[in-house]
Amino acid sequence: MTVREIRRFRQDPLRFLEDFADRSPTDVFRLPWDAWCVRDTDLSLKVLRDPLFHSGMPSFFGGLLPSRPAQMELGRAVRHVVRTHIPVYRNSVARAVAELPNVSAWPQSGLTLVHRSTAELLLHPDSSPALRQLLVRFVKGGLIRSPHLRGRLRAEALRPKLVAAVTEHIAERRATGVRADAPRDVLDAVIGACPEEVTDRTVARLYLLLVVSIVGPTGYAVAWSVLLACLHHPPGSSWPWPADWIAREAARHRPVTWMVGRSVPHPAEYGGIPFQSGATLSVSPYLLHHDKDRWGDPEHFRPERWDEPAEHRGPYLPFSAGPFTCSGAAVAQALVTEAVAALNAAGPLSVRGGDMRPVVTDGAVPRTFELQRVPTR
Predict the structure, then answer these.
(1) Where are its TM segments located (predicted)?
(2) Which of 297, 310, 356, 359 is 20 to 30 Å from 163 by CA-CA measure?
(3) pLDDT, tens only, 223-249
């Protein structure tokens, strides 16, 4: 990317993407960072569901597990333990919302809120206090690659310590035995689902990957929901929409996963363009969620659209689509909705410094804003 393109991308990443898509004469266009993106909605859905494009191992686990069945087993185990924890999470998130200060800094407060509400799910209270504190520091780091050098350096300094501490704790749990059919927390679920030949350190890396995937997207999705609801409703009264509508519309309007891409596994042609194996081809949920031919008023945040007939809505894939759709999509949606409901129940809210342009690194996350409780008369 040129210096000018970098500046434009940082200023407004989503507009930058839309400009490239609008200028493209073909259904697939080249991005400045040496990757390709599908512009056409029908072709995007075809790519996402194409067995050839999705042949081989998914990239989420980064080769940490030996086979696709092992990956699926781990996904099922973690999804089950999170789902069974939702009633506890509902009460925990209500308490965490009540403990928020009258003025809180977001989106970091969204991560903190979700982590406090899932702390015992992620790591049982009987676990080492030092390890639990390291996990708190890890969440405070933002969970995604920071756009600032100082933030990246802090995260890089903490990660080896955390991996080492989790590895030691896993060795202790494995030595005493873990019941795969009755996990106490996500770590138990990961240990129980991993084949015995998977090393303690690899299990630790898998566990931290799942912590990031649970707390990060959920916390940032809650932050987008809060920001967009406040920006589109006058302060002084609670939001007029059900929490589920707000969460779904926020995930449509500003999906945290704004781009889904992978290396083309075999030579293939998409949109009339030949691709060799190894080329990066992406589909943008953001572009699909803003297709004017599929969505009415896609540029407007309208939670009420989720009360309209389904045929009035276009493709919705905040958790991707096809063979590698996020297996925890329904659970993640439930976690976000419960947090949004708790915030709405806490009383009127307003934001200061809100900006709908995201910061994009590993995901599209809100820029810093303040959430304020509005005094009721």
Answers:
(1) 206-227
(2) 359
(3) 999 999 999 998 878 899 999 999 999
